[in-house]
Description:
The complex is a heterodimer. Chain A is 52% helix and 17% strand. Chain A is of the alpha+beta class. Chain A folds into three domains: 7-118, Butyryl-Coa Dehydrogenase, subunit A, domain 1 (Orthogonal Bundle); 121-231, Beta Barrel (Butyryl-CoA Dehydrogenase, subunit A, domain 2); 236-382, Up-down Bundle (Butyryl-CoA Dehydrogenase, subunit A, domain 3). In chain A, helix 3 packs across helix 6 and helix 6 (234-268) packs parallel to helix 8 (316-341). Chain B contains six helices and 13 strands. Chain B has helices spanning 37-52, 68-77, 92-106, 125-133, 187-193, 232-241, and strands at residues 2-6, 9-11, 19-20, 25-26, 33-35, 56-63, 81-86, 110-114, 137-147, 150-157, 160-167, 170-174, 198-202. In chain B, a hairpin with a 2-residue loop joins strand 9 and strand 10 (150-157). In chain B, helix 2 packs across helix 5 (187-193) and helix 3 (92-106) packs across helix 4. Chain B is globular, with a radius of gyration of 21 Å. Chain B starts with a strand and ends in a 5-residue tail after the last helix. The chains are: A alpha+beta, B alpha/beta. The A-B interface holds A 7-8, 10-12, 15, 18-19, 22, 47-50, 53, 57, 62-64 and B 68-69, 72-73, 76, 181, 184-188, 190-191, 194.
Amino acid sequence: xxxxxxxxxxxxxxxxxxxxxxxxxxxxxxxxxxxxxxxxxxxxxxxxxxxxxxxxxxxxxxxxxxxxxxxxxxxxxxxxxxxxxxxxxxxxxxxxxxxxxxxxxxxxxxxxxxxxxxxxxxxxxxxxxxxxxxxxxxxxxxxxxxxxxxxxxxxxxxxxxxxxxxxxxxxxxxxxxxxxxxxxxxxxxxxxxxxxxxxxxxxxxxxxxxxxxxxxxxxxxxxxxxxxxxxxxxxxxxxxxxxxxxxxxxxxxxxxxxxxxxxxxxxxxxxxxxxxxxxxxxxxxxxxxxxxxxxxxxxxxxxxxxxxxxxxxxxxxxxxxxxxxxxxxxxxxxxxxxxxxxxxxxxxxxxxxxxxxxxxxxxxxxxxxxxxxxxxxxxxxxxxxxx
Amino acid sequence: xxxxxxxxxxxxxxxxxxxxxxxxxxxxxxxxxxxxxxxxxxxxxxxxxxxxxxxxxxxxxxxxxxxxxxxxxxxxxxxxxxxxxxxxxxxxxxxxxxxxxxxxxxxxxxxxxxxxxxxxxxxxxxxxxxxxxxxxxxxxxxxxxxxxxxxxxxxxxxxxxxxxxxxxxxxxxxxxxxxxxxxxxxxxxxxxxxxxxxxxxxxxxxxxxxxxxxxxxxxxxxxxxxxxxxxxxxxxxxxxxxxxxx
Lengths: 387, 246
């Protein structure tokens, strides 16, 4: 076994770490407070080359491996979850389906501009009545006069409504099979299309500086050629997109846990009570030992899942495990870190307050922790039964 | 315009150092190495000058194979090619001779160093190279602009600045201010750095001018004694009797 990163991977990690410290850290607290999506910062992330990192160069990407991309998300999340969310969602959910399922023409049309940071793309899956139960999707589409006609709505869609958003991949019900099961299809919808509107969602507890939107389709018509993949392939596209997305949400959990750990380490070596640094109390140091152990485990699991993907092996079970474990330990480590900060940890002047709120999405978004357990347990059962 | 930037491969500023071999060398395991910060700033300014006009930037390091990731980072930042003189950089004179030899072959217009490497703080290589080549050396440069066939430079002095102009070629040692902050390599740069030439050449013979006997770490700081703000008497007593400062 070899746990060493390559020289390139180390350079990528260190460069993103420096970038996060220099460009994101100084503004993260203010953007969160104002719940402001920053066009300027998103463009800087684009200039760093973090959008489309894993795409081949002909589509505007950097041709990097999955692990490099995941470490980039981790390093950004270590400083700020909102920016990491913009990055992870655009790469995994926005760019991913277009790259994996788009025709050459679709790829050349969209991907190069989506790699620059001057334009963002969304993935429209969740609906008001279809969260964990994605088969409850009500948005419908049918073909008429060589056009898809779409009606319905989507909710909680990252990168759907900001000034940089230029469109979405939308999942819709397009029919039923012979057994009466719904048939799903994904269709490309560009912003500005008549009948397509986006509304930013306000009042979020977490990821306040990222863009979350509601999408509305009211007799929205797009060319028939906007079909992504094949008719009826929607479920397959959704599931494989979520497998990849789980790695990046895992990276957000790992990065957040590491960032919360860093803050608690710093604070517990500065704060004195009873005449001693609070780290010297066994309660504090043992909690930090547990936190460090969880982070180490989370990193090993997530990086292994990336390694599986990079080596073209099945990785869906490990991706679900990574998403579950990294999200859960993000909650535990952030909780311990707030406790170590005491009363100050409850104040907005301290970054840990933001980390504590931001972690709460991780056990809910892109498949709740319960759904991850469902996915993992199905793999286990299939393996046991030899399916 | 041909620019050479000399790159030192140094310990990260936060590295914990433990000496080995009777204090003659140090343990390199688990230590992060970086481009010495003044040289990173000088390289950043060199890149800006190149981008404003035209030319090439070569980076050079005298070191063994372990320094190549450091040179690759310089390439990722935007340098065009790299040279590694394959030798253990034993002292400033040895390093300067190697660099001077390369400059003789290639006729660079500007040779940048940092004002000192942040590990040994020698601050000698640039001046030695200039001396060996009989060209001007301008130290502690905090700003540089190109102006036709000359360069306008600003030097830091105690409490002020000195502005000088100089014809090419010359050696300039950069310091804080020469660029606002070091450039962070973007992903494209990191991928392109793989394909850029990194030439390894053998060292020319050079006698050692100095020999390191050993290194020592500073004494650990004593425990801090806290005195209540209104107890000036005790402060004076301690300064007088314990610290013998009064």
